[in-house]
Amino acid sequence: MATKPLTGTKVFLMLVAFFGVVIGVNVTMMKLAIATLPGTDVDSPYAAGLAYDREIAAAQDQAARKWQVNAHIERRADGNAVLQVEARDAAGQPVTGLKFGGRLERPTDKRADLAVELAEAGIGIYRGNAASVAPGQWDLVIEGDAGGERVFLSRNRVILN
Known about the structure:
The chain is an alpha+beta fold. Helix content is about 30%, strand content about 35%. Keywords: Membrane, Transmembrane, Transmembrane helix.
């Protein structure tokens, strides 16, 4: 059996094919990585920077109110979760008439975030349900609004089993 000799043309074509495959795979992986995780925490860092002073003032106003807001979330066996928020003012009296809302945010994937609508179930007690909550770590974000203005914000890491 006669073997074909290795020529310069064959070596050149093998090198072009090798580097073509490597560059093609790199470009494909780069496009997939950018499309799935752009690497930003906020959509507009500039707008977030402008809002920073307003956030500081809102946090100082919230601290001055000295409200005591307790939240309890429980994930049931069917995957649904129940969130209960109890709000009291500095004197220990229930805070009523607010519009509370909650969010369960996945620390690793914004696409899995879930909104929880809370309704006043009693004097100073707000409850809501979330469907199809996966087990694991979540950030529980609670916001309270009065007259269209946010008067309370809380963010806590929770583990739901």
